[in-house]
Amino acid sequence: MDIKKITEKYKDYILEKRRYFHMNPEPSLHEYNTSKVVQEELKKLNIPYIVAAKTGVIATIKGEKPGKTVLLRADMDALEVCEQNEVSYKSQKEGFMHACGHDGHTAMLLGAAHVLNEIKSEIKGEIKLLFQPAEEVAAGAKAMIEETKITDVIDGAFAIHLWQGVPVGKISLEPGARMAAADMFTVKIKGKSGHGSMPQETIDAVVVGSALVMNLQHLVSRNTNPLDTLVVTVGKFEAGTRMNIIAGEAILEGTMRSFSDNVWKAIPEQFERVVNNTCATYGATAEINLVRATPPLVNDEKISEILKESATKLYGDEVLIKYEKTPGGEDFAYFTQKVPGALAFVGIRNDEKGINAPHHNERFDMDESALEIGTNLYVQFAIDFLNS
Q: What is the pTM for the complete model shown?
């Protein structure tokens, strides 16, 4: 079976769909038109599907022989970015843009649906195609899993991230940690305001907040194994109203990133301890809101090995490239926490064509030849996993 030859028939279709989605971006939790188009395409193919989490779609392709079940996932949401590319498929919605490749992910999985549906008589087992909402706000994967219990019926999961850090024509499939756990926090410090010349009558929230910014770094340097990774960033610090008033309140907002499951699980207790004890030292109190956006995304070793075999079947050993893990978050991690799974970085950067703007940038774009590569990898992996 020549997967590349079959996919080639749908090359124009995949490109057309990617450009349509790019021109019609929808933000997280509002992917109504995108979901509608996905459903219409599945209906044309007579592929059964269900809708979950309002806009999410799970389609099922059954082979003629019994076997395992594998899930292929694509995310659908766009970002609040105003596109500055002057291309024929430029976003038609002011202030919104597919600046992270999700338009390509959705198009590739629709392309894979066509190919897999065409060869389903040769498939052993079952394939779930999951079109997921709200990855950018780390809400979609969790909602889909909780609502459908999909992880109870699958044996493995695979996702693709079209990646600007990898040259077009290359694929990164390393096992182990690939994307970071992402936590977001808000700390509201409550002190006591007063006159700037009489600090003895106050509890200075600026001083408390400043101490907290520094003390939180001890989570990295003194509470975390030097062989592991933790990043603590306070990106926003608000306090005070004028120069001669000591602030009674301060608000700190930030994020923490980690790759180790052990480090990630220890964060809530350690974070609250540092915040509360720092505030107590100065006589202040704190209100803490810690949001656990995503766990670390760790590629299963056996799944990664099957993926490497699939990629080399398609394109030879030269397609593989080693790429370092990234501190960006990805909610596909909720799937890999529950079942063996992996995420591949499929390259889209082409410096010669000037396609090299980073993710979430207003000039982000992709070398669209990567769409065919990603579609082939979806299909080949599904077949190889079910036959493994």
A: 0.94
